[in-house]
Amino acid sequence: MEELGLFPLGIVLLPTEQLPLHIFEERYKELIDECLAGDGEFGLVYADDDGLRDLGTRARVTEVLTRFEDGRLNIVVEGGERFRLAELTEGRSFSTGLVAPIADDEDPADAAGVEEALRLFERLRELTGSDVESPRAGTAQLSFALAGKVELPAQDKLALLAETSERVRMELVQDLLTSAVVTAQRVRRAAERASTNGKVDLE
Fold first, then answer.
1. Which stretch of DSSP H or E encloses residue 166?
2. Confidence band (pLDDT; 50, 70, 90) for 192?
3. What is the pTM of this model?
């Protein structure tokens, strides 16, 4: 096990996902400055009214967007390995804990599942007019790479984090992408109706 600085937040970070963060609390400015100085990582752990989860993701700062005079930071972080939080520790201004890595099972996604997930992602890009780049079929842990490019509820992302089978994760991602496509189609139809007041434009 390893002791890791922790950043409890009401968001879930998936492996490979990139996320902008605004750092303003003194204790977390200290944590991020240490990570930047030593090219280190911190643990992003989901926290809500029910408390801190025991599942998290290592995060590394990939870009400092803005450094304000008072020490606040706008940064971009990228998700790395998942971990299980075994025990909270003390002694620092920010949260720390002993963590153990989570390894995937030997259960890869099948080719048909990969193809369908990529098809759904492309359809979603088309419907939303997004310029987000599509991951390649051979990307390691493709399920995370796909899910990390879509806005998903925290509970769905937690379920993906907890799953150690890439095959099962890909099935979950297919379901999530299918729902997202249906929602995007509904939004587009509503926008098209609104633009014509629900009537045929004869001009």
1. helix 166-195
2. confident
3. 0.89
